[in-house]
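Inputs:
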Amino acid sequence: MHNILAIWQREMKSYFVSPIAYVVLTVFLFLFGLFFFGNLAEVVQYTTMMQAQFGQSGQPIDVPAYVIQQLMRTTSLILLFLIPMLTMGLFSEEKKRGTIELLLTTPVGNFQALMGKYLASLTFLVILLAAGAVTLSPLFIYGQPDWKPMLAAFLGMLLYGAALLALGLFVSTLTENQIVAVVITFGLGLMLWLVSVFASSATGATRDVINYLSVISHLDDFIKGVIDTSHIIYYLTFAFVGLFLAYRSLESMRWKG
Amino acid sequence: MIEVEHVSKAYGGRKVVDDISFRVKKGEILGFLGPNGAGKTTTMRILTCYMPATEGTARIAGHDVFEESLEVRRRIGYLPENPPLYPEMTVDSYLNFVARIKGVRSNARKARVGDAIEKCNLGDVRRRIIGRLSKGYKQRVGLAQAIVGNPEVLILDEPTIGLDPRQIHEVRSLIKGLGEAHTVILSTHILPEVSMTCSRVVIINNGKVVAQDTPEGLAHQMKGAERISLTVEAPAAAVREKILAIDGVLDVHAEEKGEVSTCSVECRLGSDLRRILARQIVDEGWGLLELRAVSMSLEDVFINLITQE
Ligand SMILES: Nc1ncnc2c1ncn2[C@@H]1O[C@H](COP(=O)(O)OP(=O)(O)OP(=O)(O)O)[C@@H](O)[C@H]1O
Ligand SMILES: [Mg+2]
């Protein structure tokens, strides 16, 4: 525990002295804000139009809910791009600098090194999402939207991000080149994103399996404000598998030298 | 304290460390000497649990480096070939981090870090960013990192590389000082370093131990026999040719000055060829003006050992 904390702290500091953290944070907030206000403007325009056509009797639509749903779908894509940048350096940088030789010859176990780093990347994700949540504050200033579905959406985003982070962590144990780590993580992430395309041509059980594998299909319920344990289990399993592979990869690194 | 028994390491079938055995007693400073690619770094990586041996066992303080790697890691300080530094950290925070992951308790950490900084002369740069330090300072930070946990065993891969002469001197006396309370293995190419700091030398070449002794013992062992200086009244080329034909002669350097040639004859270890040489020269009918055994420096021993076969 003690070692995990030490690694976590070092990792957090190194995030914030490198430009990567600020670039990721800035790009995320910029895109998040852009799409938020874009969606908001669109909905407002749409409702005004509807009101003009049907008067007050028109179907009232839940503006915040609609905006959040659109926004979260976009956010999942933004995260798919940005998350590989948070994990690319975690191990590949240590390999390149030779500091891995320090880590693996001190009493820090592989598991502790792994968890320290994973938790650091997770913390950064939380910061990212929290900053995004703050951007949504205008909704609360100009109305009383239901916060529970929003919380569900953010929880889903966090779980989805946690899964991708574990994947990225695994990939970064494989190479000492950060660019390679980014590209592979992004490629794998995209594959798990688009896998549902194949579902349409499949049938029966195959189709269900493909749909189950898709990293994005499990996000929809969260975005709609529904928290379903089966989806939580999916993301946690995903993260666990990623961490397990990363652990095995670290162990085998000792063998290959 | 350190026991290495029949350790081998192969990379893809090629043995780079081949059946190495040696022991280091508590308080000893062992110099690990060998040319580039001899397998020094590889052996040290095995000892520090960074990677396992293909064959053989190694124990540190009675703990097997493979079976009880955690126990071993608690007891060692390791300076890898390339100092393992985080360039974005300051010297202070880096050493604190290392002390922390080496299990130094938080109340003792400040003192231990201060001690390491003082020993490695890093006081002036302790608040500087490591990435902006000069190479020699980085090497010193690497050294400080190895000693910060006050480990029983220090394993230092070329500790004085990149340092200026004064620092080399200081680091050597530091290592000598450490040798009183710690057990040290250091690798180097620099021969005087071994005679100055080490109580014992292991020379390895192509992954095999070719000699182990005290530095004096090694130099002594060779004395008088392995290099012979000759002054002969004959053409250099002819002398060279005749002497090279003698069994046990490894190399001959001959120089002609007027009527006489001076030669330096290198012979295989342990073979005293003085009589045979003298007879050969007399048989040729040349005038033998001087024949003298030259005592070899550690450097000569080293070159001699690794150029055999
Ligand atoms: N990861 C690796 N894969 C394959 N071969 C390796 C690997 N690491 C080292 N070697 C080989 O093992 C041999 C011994 O290398 P090692 O680094 O132990 O030598 P060294 O004695 O430390 O040399 P130097 O004085 O140059 O530091 C070399 O021939 C090297 O090419
Ligand atoms: Mg080396």
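Chain B has two domains: 2-220, 224-294. Flag for discussion at group meeting.
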